[in-house]
Automatic annotation (TrEMBL):
Source taxon at top rank: Bacteria
Gene Ontology MF terms: lyase activity
Keyword terms: Lyase, Metal-binding
Organism ancestry: Bacteria, Pseudomonadati, Bacteroidota, Flavobacteriia, Flavobacteriales
Protein name: Lactoylglutathione lyase family protein
Amino acid sequence: MTTYPKRFSHIGITVPDINKAAKFYSEVMGWYTIMPPSLVKKETDTAIGQMCIDVFGDDWETFEIAHLATSDGIGVELFSFPHGKKEAPEFNPFNTGLFHFCVQDPDIEGLIEKIVAAGGKQRMPIREYYPNDKPYKMCYVEDPFGIVFEIYTHSYELTYSSGAYANEG
C-alpha cells in the first residue's frame, strides 16, 4: 500500500459562545459560513445523533455547532456545550496535545489589529524568519475566547523550504 500525503479536512474548536465565535471567525478571519449555529440533540434515531453519542459518550443532552470554511476549503467546526469549562485551558505548549493552528495572511499587521479590536490579544511581537532578506513574518495571537493560534505571511512551504533553522555564516 502506497503512503501519500493526506489532505487536511477540518479542525474542531470548542468555544464558550457559538454566536460570538461564529461572528468573530466570519467577520475577523473572513471564513465562510457553511452552516450557521445550530442545535444538536442527543437522539439515537438519527445518523448525526448516533454519531455524536459515539464521539461524546452519553453525558450530554444538547450542544451547538457551526461550520465555517477557510478560503482554501479547510473546514472549521465550532462547538459550544452547555456544560464544561467556559475558558480556554492555560497555554502550555510543553504538554502533549494540540498546540495551535496557523492561518496565513500577507497583511499580518492588519489582521492582528482586527483581532485585538475584536477582543483578542497579540501574544508577542511580529517576528521575521529572515530579517533583511525575505519578508516572511509570524506572530502568535489569541482569539477573544483564549484560543491561541499563529499567523504566517507566507505559505508553510516557502517559510521552511529555505531552512529557517539553518546555521548562518
